[in-house]
């Protein structure tokens, strides 16, 4: 094979060769109409500099040194390098009331102008959207997202691009990072799930999906021919991960509660005894908040002859992973049991403007995954590589600002309010279920699309749910139930039997009530 | 196989059963020392409520209704539900000057307290870190990250958890989203790379790695037994993706410029003629900013007998994907050529506090990837599922605020300043190279670790680089070069020959100068 290295001459070029002589040729990417109008404009004034000279972003000394360096006549440089159009005032026409109205009412977000948009117009669009979001926020019931947070104190960090590229424990050569904050957050979770510093490895992810991907991938690297087992009530990301990572996936039945069906799991394991098992456990499930019982799964593995070196357990603790430690008698999520990894979502219970999460695993597994990356002077065992430096600071603040007692109070509030909602629905003759350590209230699916949309309800087949998070007040729940009862009269004929979905004891149908 | 559905009785519980009677039992996750002290404290006051009654987050009416609902005596409820400790004033001891100093100087970030941290202490830590970052920011030269942005106008959006779960074009049932902004941003990029609305699909990613993962995965789903080809100068994420997705990966040699070696590519393709080809092209490479020539690769595919249905091309345009359209004579990145996907990083040229990116592909490929997800009332063809709603707004603002002409000015500034830096290094007798359409200046690796760290330089083997982004001023470059020259006298003996790394014409060694 011929080595062509070095054969090709590399031309280093003067900057002047690179730029088009008129601005218009660079306007690829503009809408056709806008582009056409710009071309016409430039054709009409081919030799004029169309840009105002004030408000340059480069001061004169810099321009002078650049100009000097390339021996370009000063005038030519200005002609060719129309540095800035920042201070161009929009024309009266642009500012007309009609245009502003259009901007606001029709949410004119399209990016079609060749020149920049005036700041006050952008501000109007922003204000309008923030108002809309505020209105919607008071009705968000269906998703496990805590909307009660205030990170105003962290706003100054938005002036930096922070990047925790690579391994949080080794740092990287990119100095604008928050690795120290990240390690504090990881230590907190390692402590919560009872694994010693030095024994664990982890990082702040972009959310539950990345955590699941990392956990299951870690399992796959340990047991390359392992089969992934997960219940049919698992989050959709688990099935996506299986496909992405080219793993055989066995979907195990679920119980009515949403919990994995241990009998079916046992049968599935026995049917594939020759292959190691990678098991995803839900702590708890997305729709019903059911918690797969780690101890029972471990017992099943023992009964079916899977020794410790032939299984890997990943725990998807998206919402409950942070909550359970604050609940008496709740199943213990701990690395003292032979599990491989746990992940949670940071924007769920803790609350964060941006999706994020945490994954913790045993440090021994990580060497198989990591690669030294000289470019960032770090090693990389993460999925995303370049990672947010802001989300670890948000999580750090969330934990530090509240303390354990603050978190405990919030867990209690959510649990109490969830049971309040269930009681109110039962009292109105509506089938409803709450699993034991859950703040997710599952009930008869409303048959009114507008109602479902208004309250951001998550639905699946015959059921819908409300996840009672910190921002959900009793007033919100009352308002929701009252409207539900009122609207239900329209579509309601006979109560659908939901015993298959949420159990006979929670069903309000004629047969079970 | 026995179906155990419904066999297990589900107990719905009263909230009172769930909570420990004393707060301490919930303090799992606390540091051992703190936990021990808390246990001691609680043992001493087992029947007292340790929490102040002021500053409750639940107002009395809510507490009353919850209490009433569960028939819990009001007093008991307060005992068991110490709602809040928000207004606890830190003791004098806590506030001592020594402690504050420790907080600031030793960056006491650890989250070890059971109760929440006082706001003023947090503010001190934040201020200290923001100052440190500001100092560092003026020296960030080695990474392709634009630090010149101001998104203060978008701060109000930080009061919401925005989530663009699922497909940006179908929306989802989670109403706090920015899908409209996202679609505008995608339309802009589709236009830039010349693919019609309706013909393309895409989304805003968490960064370049996710974009590469998505693009290559899209290729794999089209050509399941395809082999991935990528040059040795490719970003480390490409090799990671290959491994994650269980794809055979052929590493192709690079030319001295960093560009893929077309002769070696041809030989590799011929050696694997029986398998389809999935080709990653760098637009441009991470270290040297070299651009793989799409046309030459297409010609190579034709010569080796790969018809259009037997190859898929993904373009990793992390930095240059946005810049090239603004440069005269630059290779055209367009969907008019038979490519499958393009990705860019949003935090690189455009600038964004949080890592993000854009991936655009042909809509026809997406049906193979997507799954309907009833839970979010959307379909999912993304990697991360739950996705940031903020980053699309940042990108929208970045594009709208600048317009095409603003972007054009910035590209010009970066290109000019990069050539200024190369000239200054050459003048000082230091080997240095800039590829034709690149703002990355590659030079002799400094042998002083502190110097490398101070300027956040990225190094690889014998070379280092500076990526001249928008925030890099001529003053910064002068300051960098002057310090480089000064420090270099310490380690400098004879100039290392770098002809193998950056070409003989850029080498300042005795043989080539």
UniProtKB/TrEMBL annotation, chains A, B:
N6-(pyridoxal phosphate)lysine modification, residue list: 348
Q: Which UniProt keywords apply?
A: Decarboxylase, Lyase, Pyridoxal phosphate
Q: Which domain of life is it from?
A: Eukaryota
Q: Cross-referenced InterPro entries, in alphabetical order? A: Group_II_Decarboxylase, PyrdxlP-dep_de-COase, PyrdxlP-dep_Trfase, PyrdxlP-dep_Trfase_major, PyrdxlP-dep_Trfase_small, Pyridoxal-P_BS
Q: Which cofactor does it need?
A: pyridoxal 5'-phosphate
Gene3D superfamilies registered for this protein in UniProt: Aspartate Aminotransferase, domain 1 (3.90.1150.10), Type I PLP-dependent aspartate aminotransferase-like (Major domain) (3.40.640.10)
Q: One MF term from GO for this chain?
A: carboxy-lyase activity
The family annotation for this protein states: Belongs to the group II decarboxylase family.
Name of the featured protein:
Histidine decarboxylase
Species, as recorded: Flemingia macrophylla
């Amino acid at each position: 094979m011929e080595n062509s290295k070095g054969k090709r001459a590399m031309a280093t070029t003067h900057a002047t060769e690179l730029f088009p002589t008129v601005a218009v040729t660079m306007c690829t990417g503009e809408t056709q109409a806008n582009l056409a109008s710009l071309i016409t404009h430039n054709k009409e004034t081919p030799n004029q500099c169309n840009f105002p000279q004030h408000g340059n972003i480069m001061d004169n000394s810099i321009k002078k040194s650049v100009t000097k360096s390339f021996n370009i006549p000063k005038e030519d440089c200005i002609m060719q390098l129309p540095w800035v159009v920042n201070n161009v005032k929009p024309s009266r026409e642009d500012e007309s009331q009609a245009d502003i109205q259009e901007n606001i009412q029709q949410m004119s977000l399209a990016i079609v102008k060749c020149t920049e948009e005036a700041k006050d117009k952008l501000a109007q669009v922003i204000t309008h959207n923030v108002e809309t979001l505020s209105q919607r926020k008071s009705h968000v019931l269906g998703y496990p997202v805590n909307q009660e947070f205030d990170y105003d104190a962290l706003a100054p960090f938005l002036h930096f691009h922070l990047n925790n590229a690579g391994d949080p424990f080794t740092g990287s050569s990119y100095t604008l990072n928050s690795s120290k904050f990240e390690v504090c957050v990881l230590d907190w979770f390692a402590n919560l799930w009872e694994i010693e510093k030095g024994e664990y490895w982890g990082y702040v992810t972009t959310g539950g999906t990345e955590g699941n991907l990392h956990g299951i991938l870690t399992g796959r690297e340990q047991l390359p021919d392992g089969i992934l087992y997960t219940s049919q009530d698992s989050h959709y990301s688990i099935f996506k991960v299986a496909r992405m990572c080219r793993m055989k996936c066995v979907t195990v039945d679920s119980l009515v509660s949403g919990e994995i069906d241990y009998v079916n799991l046992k049968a599935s394991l026995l049917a594939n005894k020759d292959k190691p098992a990678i098991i995803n456990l839900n702590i708890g499930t997305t729709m019903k908040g059911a918690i797969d019982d780690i101890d029972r799964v471990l017992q099943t593995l023992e009964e079916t002859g899977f020794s410790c070196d032939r299984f890997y357990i990943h725990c998807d603790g998206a919402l409950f992973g942070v909550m359970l430690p604050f609940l008496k008698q709740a199943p213990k999520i701990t690395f003292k049991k032979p599990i491989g990894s746990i992940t949670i979502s940071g924007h769920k219970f803790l609350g964060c403007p941006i999706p994020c999460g945490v994954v913790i695993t045993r440090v021994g597994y990580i060497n198989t995954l990591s690669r030294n990356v000289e470019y960032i002077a770090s090693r990389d065992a993460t999925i995303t590589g370049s990672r947010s430096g802001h989300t670890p600071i948000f999580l750090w603040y969330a934990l530090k600002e509240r303390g354990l007692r603050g978190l405990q109070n919030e867990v209690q509030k959510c649990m109490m309010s969830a049971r309040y909602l269930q009681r109110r629905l039962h009292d109105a003759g509506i089938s409803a279920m709450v699993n034991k350590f859950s703040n997710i209230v599952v009930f008869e699916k409303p048959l009114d699309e507008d109602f479902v949309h208004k309250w951001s309800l998550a639905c699946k087949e015959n059921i819908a749910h409300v996840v009672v998070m910190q921002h959900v007040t009793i007033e919100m729940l009352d308002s929701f139930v009252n409207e539900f009862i009122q609207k239900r009269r329209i579509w309601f004929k006979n109560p659908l039997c939901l015993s298959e979905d949420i159990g006979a004891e929670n069903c309000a149908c004629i047969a079970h009530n």
